[in-house]
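User: Working on a comparison across species. This one is C2H2-type domain-containing protein from Petrolisthes manimaculis. Can you predict its structure so I can line it up against the others?
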Amino acid sequence: MECLAQDRSAWHSRTSKAQEVFETNRRDQLANAREAHKAAKSSLSATAAFQCPYCPRVCASRIGLSSYTRAHERRLSAR
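Assistant: Here's the predicted structure for C2H2-type domain-containing protein from Petrolisthes manimaculis:
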């Protein structure tokens, strides 16, 4: 490695190439992770649907359904 450091242009070329490869791999990994996250999120929203027991409304989360159901029950009891 010392002899490579003595030849500055070869050292610079090799370190630049290594950095370029590292950055390319890092960007690819981030892009793959982002796509996996998006795919998991979209498949989760398609499968995790919570339907109101009083009407055909579908909520995306359980807490949303709970809040909606509570409001729906208040509206029904006010009639």
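For your comparison, note: Residues 8-47 form the longest helix (40 residues).

User: Helpful, thanks.
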